[in-house]
Amino acid sequence: MSGSEEDQAADDAAGKAAGRRPPTKTPMFTARNSARYERQDLIKAINAAEKTQLICYVAGHDTEINRDDLLGFVDLLHNISDGEPVDLMLHTCGGDVDACEKLVAAIHAKVGESPFRVIVPDMAKSAGTLMALGANSVIMSDTSELGMIDPQYPMADRQGNVIMHSVVAYLEAYEEHAAALRRDVKDPIALLMLDGFDAKIVRKFQGIRDRVRTFAEDLLKRQGLPASAISAELLSSSRWKTHAQPISHADATQLGLPIEYVAPDDPRWARYWRLYCLQRIEIAGDSKIFESSFVSQVVEG
Q1: Are residues 107 and 201 in the same domain?
Q2: Residue 125, Cβ neighbours under 10 Å: how many?
């Protein structure tokens, strides 16, 4: 017991001896925080049922995974002992790949050789899918979806409007026209189309694509999975026609990912879905919640 805990215990004992009851949360404080207590009681029930430590990162649709999220994850992992199994409930539309790598590394450092699972109640897109690739297994149901890991990059058009461009689609178009020009150096369409590509942007995009592919393959190799094949499929714009196209539990299983399917009417999934709904109600589109049985923080961005 720490010194502060000993002092508190002594104060409580003295209070009881003097006929005073120990301090408790006030009725108003309890009422104002009742939603948080309900969620944390549910997390405790899930921990007991699953024999794990559940942490939650649920982000609004106007937010992205970023480097500041490390602060929230460090708090979530603070009261978990090294080597304990960890489950991560994850809902995100994506974000910064470098931040994603730091978050996954923090979880791996905590769990060591113990199991790490990701639960996807709704969406874990783009960089969220990359985080899921770092798990030993991914729990999904009929409402769950992963997404392409194709990076999106903002570029201004000729009118100055900023548009998100698919890095992979941009490079595939460039390589298609370059191949046509190699076949016929006078191909008028290839010459016209290649004139619209910037060599510096091409090189930059190649670096971004290779960075994501290498990170994905490293995560998959850690699980002993066919890394090159799976990462190539998750980057394939010919298989997934849009960046937002859902990758269902059946798709993910077919790709070779370690998916654990739980039916919607299963009591296990009912607990996860109830918790997710309570957390989504708590946050706005521009905020995110970091929550465990110990921690509950709602932050903007």
Answers
A1: no
A2: 25
Same domain, 266 and 230: no
DSSP state of 20: P
Number of structural domains the chain divides into:
2
Could you read off the pLDDT of 16-59 as tens digits, one per residue? 656 667 778 888 888 888 999 999 999 999 999 999 999 999 99
**Does 211 lie in the same domain as 84?**
no
Q: Does some domain include residue 166?
A: yes
Confidence of residue 3 (pLDDT cuts 50, 70, 90): very low
Distance CA 62, CA 288 (A): 10
* 135 and 116 Cβ atoms separated by less than 8 Å: yes
Per the model's pLDDT, the better-predicted residue between 13 and 114 turns out to be 114
Q: Are residues 47 and 171 in the same domain?
A: no
Beta pairing, strands 259-261 & 137-140? parallel
* pLDDT of 84 higher than 50: yes
By CB atoms closer than 10 A (0-12, 13-18, 19+), residue 193 is middle
Please tell me the distance from the alpha carbon of residue 108 to that of residue 301, in angstroms, as a whole number: 25
Domain that holds residue 265: 25-147+246-300
CATH number, domain with residue 141: 3.90.226
Q: Are 167 and 140 members of one domain? A: no
Beta-carbon count within 10 A of 230 CB: 21
175 and 206 Cβ atoms separated by less than 8 Å:
no
Indicate yes or no: pTM above 0.90.
Answer: no
Cβ burial of 3 (10 Å; 0-12, 13-18, 19+) is exposed
